[in-house]
Amino acid sequence: MAKQVNIIMGGPSVEHEVSLNTGREMLKHLDKTKYRIRPVIITLQKEFYYSDADAAVFTEDDFSNPDKSSHFKGPVSAAQSQEVWAGCDIALLALHGEFGEDGRIQGFLETIDIPYTGSGVCASAVGMDKIQSKYLFEQQGIITPPYSIYRTDGSGITIDDIITKHGFPCYVKCPQSGSSRLMDLADSKESLEKIIAELSKDSNEFLIESNISGDEYSCPVLEYPDASLRALPPILIRPVKSAYFDYTAKYTAGACEEITPAPCSEDLTKRLQEVSLKAHLVLKCRGLSRTDMIVTDDVIYVLETNTLPGLTSASLVPKSFAAAGGTYTELLDIIIETAPAGRNK
């Protein structure tokens, strides 16, 4: 009997559109002979819309405006969403950022006893928080770029302290955001102050990182149904125009070279995979993760680990899995088959 898979996408974060793209790509590639598929869209206001229509009928506008679509039912609140989950065997998470990648939707699904893909509550919450994950990485001997924590209430380091310690350019990052949103590269005291002022509406503390020049790599780790973990082929990332791998470079065609598998030595490939596996285990990830790294002077610096990496047509994980000989459909099968084992972890 076919499993019912609810694809959960959208959400209230700044990555809403990226999540919709991931969800649409999943809908396109899921094996329709194996699964009954129910797209579920969470709006920016955290309202739920869902549909049992045939996948072929949907347009991009249906997903962007489910309230105006004849194919979607809703809205319903999370508290009144029983109809959304009726018959659901697996929640396939296509969410990113706030509410989707930070442990909140995971806790909600565990409360209503729905198996879901990816990491559990703790790993999701810690992995999403760039500051807390850095603390864990440091404790386990994983090297990260030099950093400071700046707080807008004046407790801790000052702007002048940042300049003395990190120099320019340096990165300013909101601790709980992905897809290179809510971050920027400061190249002067004026730009540093401006970036912090602009981002202060989203956070009252910031991760400040020294700029590490070198080759940037990303390496996914995938859990298989037999509970084995495998690091997939690393990807070499080379932005064409941007100063770093920002949102435009990630999601604009031709804005970045993503060479898969990375053209590096066998030794470096092995080391990148080992570091990615270690980061996955340190955070207690399940299912799928992707670790981003910079290599300079033969030192591997971990930037972050994504516990729900994007699976759009432009995303890195499908490219890496394809380089290992698999298809997007096979990747989704593996992610779904490992979902029940990932609960409560």
Summed up:
Strands 10, 11, 12, 13, 14 and 15 form a six-stranded antiparallel beta sheet that branches. Strands 4-3-2-1-5 form a five-stranded mixed beta sheet, covered by helices on one side. The longest helix is centred in the C-terminal third of the chain and has 17 residues. The protein is 31% helix and 24% strand.
SS class: alpha+beta
For this structure, what is the CATH class of the largest domain? Alpha Beta
Mean pLDDT: 92
Helicity level, as a percent range?
Answer: 25-40%
Order of helices and strands: EHEEHEHEHHHEHEEHEEEEHEHEEHH
Radius of gyration: 20 Å
Strand-residue proportion = 15-25%
Question: What is the second-level CATH architecture of the largest domain?
Answer: 2-Layer Sandwich
| Largest sheet: number of strands, sense, barrel closure | 6 strands, antiparallel
CATH topology value of the largest domain: D-amino Acid Aminotransferase, Chain A, domain 1
